[in-house]
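Lab notebook: predicted structure, single chain.

Context: the supervisor wants predicted structures on file for every construct in the current expression panel, including those that have not yet been purified. This is the next one on the list. No modifications to the sequence; it matches the entry in the shared construct table.
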Amino acid sequence: MSDNPKILYVEDDPSSAMLVQRVLAVEGYDVTVVTDGISALEAADNMRPDLILMDINISGLDGYEVTTRLRSGLVGSDVPIVAVTAAALRGDRERALIAGCDGYISKPIDVDLFPDQVREFLHGHQEKIESPEEKSEYLEEYSRRLVERLEEKIRELKVAHEELQTVEKMKSDFVILAGHELRTPLTVIYGYTQLLLTNPSIPGTVDAEGSPRHLIDQVAQATKRLSQVIEDILNVSLIDANRLDLALGPVFILPVVNAVIKNISSIAQDRKVTFKLNGLEDLPPVLADGQRLQQALWNVVSNAVKYTPDGGHVTITGKEIDDTIHLSVIDTGIGIDPRDHERIFDRFSVLEDTMLHRTSKTAFKGGGLGVGLTVTKGIIEAHGGKIWVESPGRDEKSFPGSTFHILLPLPESGAPM
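Prediction complete. Output recorded below exactly as produced.
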């Protein structure tokens, strides 16, 4: 034991906590106060106290339950735990001892006697239930009480889970309905801007900044971008609600990849990122929704382009392994920290500083909503596949790169396509 013994005091009443801290600080004790059971478990594990003073009537996990949990491994039997509580009815002391406490001090504490009581427990004093019959009786009562508390918590969790599911469904339904409602006016706006752009009487060109044709083109591009954002959010909601419909049919991978590259190249001409393909022409068709699969691959390839510096390259390879198509998208970009390998597939996960956010999906380290890879994961898994990433780490000087792996099952032999 150190010269200044560390005491953990579990107490949710500020006045009681302050009194005990002041009384024990005068005696040279280092007192840490926490106000609930979970914090007590964490503090006990981190600070390894010499003594724990436990209020029984705390919210959440009560003092009995926290003591039993501490005794089950966090502090074992080495650290004295003393109940300091206003619970003074018949049997309260015995219940505290059954739960694992070494002693019992009732409130209000005697400020003159309290330091000596603490010192005794620090030096190994223990209170016991003398009668074996009485001990057995309280042990049975305590076990029954724990089971009842567990049942109560399970019921509360069940109700909370049902309420959460209801709220989640309401949210998904709202997003899906809002997405459909927004699609209609955006389609109209985009359609009319395209009609205007085909009208030769509109003066100027799309490159002549400030001209009518340029302004109309800007409206069209902004409308298209907004439609893409809405589509991404709508897809996330459909995936969450398990309502992502697939129009399945035979799909060859090479044409899908070529379409993705053509689209990305057309909107990222100044990036000078080159593409290399290997093994795709030899792959058999998969049973898939071609449009959805193209969307998933677009998200992965555009993500590779986004984090690859100008002049880099992206390699897309494919091979057939054990009735499975294995696609790899390999970039020469900045890489991904291993701790983020799973997080990047989470909804709205953004690794960049949002204060530096840019709307471009292809500019180097350009921004996004953080839903593209979430949608991709949902689409791939809806096809019975799997996606994951490998990267040695993130380095914006050495560019270690990243490799996204996609597995897609091939249809069983003889199955209709």
